[in-house]
Write a structure and sequence with these properties.
about 240 residues; alpha+beta; five-stranded mixed sheet; three-stranded antiparallel sheet; globular; iron; Bidirectional hydrogenase complex protein HoxU
């Protein structure tokens, strides 16, 4: 096992080679905000909230997909980073239709929590008010595309943990959205096992259980972590 030495926020650390900056920061007890990151699935750097500054590098890099290197001098919290993170959260709110007061995930939403953390009380960007559909064709679950932030957690969980490959991302730019099957109604996709892992993975109220009302949506991330850890330790296979 090779070890590299580096600094994070001025603190000297020795970290195993191949570790991401995000995981190294966690080991050091340093919090970096994330939305698309989920323990147990591959990181894709979609939300850009985990950006950090590295001395000698002229651009900010996503910590979830950037590995540590010998001699790195990393800053995870600065005025510049705080401004960028707030801007990202503002853009997420203005890009979709997020009305917390009538959302099933109100007070249990990672996007809402981050808005509070970065001090967002309004968005400087004009709201797009996109016309997006709600799919409740599945017998147990539904998806409200108005609340989707394209973190792709549902796609990766269904692919890498459940192995059903139900979810994917279709279209490009402002038209991009997550889809089930070949852009079919969720209820008509035979590959869906109704496991609910996508519901557990969603950071907002986009994917929900039918019958949930305002602020009732709760999740248990430990279910996903249990499955991943059990497979890695060969305690459970399917």
């Amino acid at each position: 096992m090779s070890v590299v030495t580096l600094k994070i926020n001025g603190v000297d650390l020795a970290i195993e080679e191949g570790t991401t900056i995000l995981d190294a920061s966690k080991e050091a007890g340093i919090r970096i905000p994330t939305l698309c990151h989920l323990n147990g699935v591959t990181d894709v750097g979609a939300c850009r909230l985990c950006l950090v500054e590295i001395a000698g590098v002229n651009k900010m890099l996503p910590s979830c997909v950037t590995q540590v290197a010998e001699g790195m001098d990393i800053t995870t919290d600065s005025d510049r980073l705080q401004e960028y993170r707030r801007m990202i959260v503002e853009m997420l709110f203005s890009e979709g239709n997020h009305v917390c007061a009538v959302c099933v995930a109100n007070e249990n939403c990672e996007l809402q929590d981050l808005a509070i953390e970065v001090g967002m009380d309004h968005s400087r960007f004009p709201y797009r008010f996109p016309d997006r559909e709600i799919d409740i064709s599945h017998k147990q679950f539904g998806i409200d595309h108005n609340r989707c932030i394209l973190c792709t957690r549902c796609v990766r969980v269904c692919d890498e943990i459940e192995g059903a490959h139900v979810w994917d991302v279709a279209y490009r730019g402002v038209a991009a959205k997550v889809v089930t099957g070949l852009n079919q109604p969720w209820g008509s996709v035979d590959a869906c096992t109704s496991c609910g892992k996508c519901v557990e993975a969603c950071p907002t109220g986009s994917i929900f259980r039918k019958g949930s009302t305002v602020a009732e949506m709760t999740r248990d991330r430990s279910k996903l972590e249990f499955i991943v850890n059990a497979r890695e330790n060969k305690q459970w296979t399917r």
